[in-house]
Amino acid sequence: SRPRVYMARKIPEKIWMPYKDQWDIQMWPYEDLPVSRTELFQQLKQADAIFTTLTDVVDQELMDNGKHLKIIANMAVGYDNIDVEYAHKKGIIVTNTPDVLTESTADLTFALLLAAARRLVEANQYIREDKWTTWSPLFMAGTDVHHKTIGIVGMGRIGEAVAHRAKGFHMNVLYHNRRRRPDAEKRIGATYVPFEDLLEQSDFVVCMTPLTRETEGLFDRKAFQKMKHTAIFINTSRGGTVNEQDLYEALKEGKILAAGLDVFQHEPIGKDHPLLQLDNVTALPHIGSATKDTRYQMMKLALENIELVLNGKKPKTPVT
Ligand code: GLV
Ligand code: GLV
User: Fold this and answer.
1) Is the CB–ligand 1 distance for residue 54 below 6 Å?
2) Signal sequence span per UniProt (predicted)?
């Protein structure tokens, strides 16, 4: 019989159509709602493969229910929603979608950096509220980006793509990473520094590190205290790398100047979230990789990984 594939999110028909004869495809019927845990639990009993997004927590209890499960194909570069260690213990393959989203996510990261520095969202809001009366010398005066120092925490593929953009703005590029990346240093002319030095020297501190046990809450009160009072903090990786209470206080008390955030500790957030009460926060709803081209490529790559594994082959992009 055909392998059973569960899609934990509704995706466009043209993406899964090519597989409809090979697989018995079951799909969560909503594009804008995450699958319920009960439904995922039920579906896992029979699934040979599942397609997940970053909103789907796949833990030990769920995997123990997946007696036939061979692959979890996550439509994201991050995989902190999956207990990968346990999956590997059970011989379940986990795949992610790196590379195809690198440039788009770097574009968004830089857009957010520019927006936070030059107060774009605040300025847009100003006109919409009909407050624009005149041009004035220091009206909406922000922070220069060009020739400043950017500190990238997490020099992976996306970090390097951000560094590349920063070079175009004649920025001085510092980075910190678990292991030094001499190849990247050569390619882009970035300088490796210890974490504390990066915090102290950077005008823009950009978090690009995956969420792991080591990086959880990495940006806390102590970290914000080390930053310049004029520093702008950007996060497009995972909200869990930040202690949001500490960030709120740092922004409120002027320990740092502003923040641009695409990710939050508990998503989604609403307008009552403390960080949204601050004018010096530019907030986005986790749209780092959100271009049509890139999202289609991510979906396709996840399905290719499923196809390979169900045919007994090695997936293209396994999480190791
Ligand atoms: C998005 O956050 C991703 O991990 O792809
Ligand atoms: C601003 O528009 C200027 O002309 O300086």
Assistant:
1) yes
2) none
Q: Mutation test of ligand 1: which of 55, 100, 101, 207 has the most ligand atoms closer than 8 Å to its C-beta?
A: 101
Pocket lining: 289 vs ligand 1, CB cutoff 6 Å: yes
For residue 95, the cross-strand partners are 73, 318
What is the Å distance from ligand 2's center to 135 Cα? 9
| pLDDT tens digit sequence for 39-93 | 999 999 999 999 999 999 999 999 999 999 999 999 999 999 999 999 999 999 9
- Which ipTM score applies to this complex? 0.70
Active-site annotation holds for 267 = yes
pLDDT (average), residues 152-178: 98
Q: Whose CA is nearest to atom 5 of ligand 1?
A: 76
286 labelled catalytic: yes
Burial of 285 per CB tally in 10 Å (0-12, 13-18, 19+): exposed
> CA-CA distance, 314 to 14, in Å (whole number)?
24
The topology under which CATH files domain 4-100+292-310 is Rossmann fold (3.40.50)
| Three-class HEC string of the chain | CCCEEEECCCCCHHHHHHHCCCCEEEECCCCCCCCCHHHHHHHHCCCCEEEECCCCCECHHHHHHCCCCCEEEECCCCCCCECHHHHHHCCCEEECCCCCCHHHHHHHHHHHHHHHHHCHHHHHHHHHCCCCCCCCCCCCCCCCCCCCEEEEECCCHHHHHHHHHHHHCCCEEEEECCCCCHHHHHHHCCEECCHHHHHHHCCEEEECCCCCCCCCCCECHHHHHHCCCCCEEEECCCHHHECHHHHHHHHHCCCCCEEEECCCCCCCCCCCCHHHHCCCEEECCCCCCCCHHHHHHHHHHHHHHHHHHHCCCCCCCECC
> Which residue in the block uniquely carries the two structure tokens 């196809």?
307
Q: Where are the domains of the chain?
A: 4-100+292-310, 102-283
102-283 fold: Rossmann fold (3.40.50)
